[in-house]
């Protein structure tokens, strides 16, 4: 009888891997599981932690981990995620997070603002010309926010005397 954790492991193991039997999981799906189940919270457990733990528990030249190794990995991550709890208790909490979770296909593209991204997308910190391209709420103004929208009314770019040519010659 598979445990909740094992079932979650299998659901994530086969996600996007048509050839997978669900017995082993690759790094991509491992970090997806950690993300989708909230094990990776971007604070105590980051994607780097998840990658390191994955590399640590897998066999030397393997690209995937078994459920056995997965449990090892979860013990490690549990220690980070639930500091101060006993390894078993932390592991139990990790498995609680995984209960009934399916790989999220809905909103896969939702913008995750973890670490660096939120800094890069925080328009209030923009300076110079970039600042002009967003309104107060941080929404982009699109093409209107760009200074250098070309004005095609002149003869040559930058020619300011458009429409003044004929007047000069009629004296």
Automatic annotation (TrEMBL):
Subcellular location: Cytoplasm
One term of GO molecular function: tubulin binding
Any one Pfam family match given in the protein's UniProt record, by short name: p25-alpha
Annotated signal peptide: none
Record's keyword annotation contains Transferase: no
Bias kind Basic and acidic residues: ranges: 129-149
Keyword field contains Nucleus: no
Annotated Gene Ontology cellular component terms: cytosol; microtubule; sperm flagellum
Region of interest (Disordered), ranges: 120-171
One record GO biological process: microtubule bundle formation
Keyword line: Cytoplasm
UniProt family annotation: Belongs to the TPPP family.
Protein name as annotated: Tubulin polymerization promoting protein family member 2
Taxonomy of the source species: Eukaryota, Metazoa, Chordata, Craniata, Vertebrata
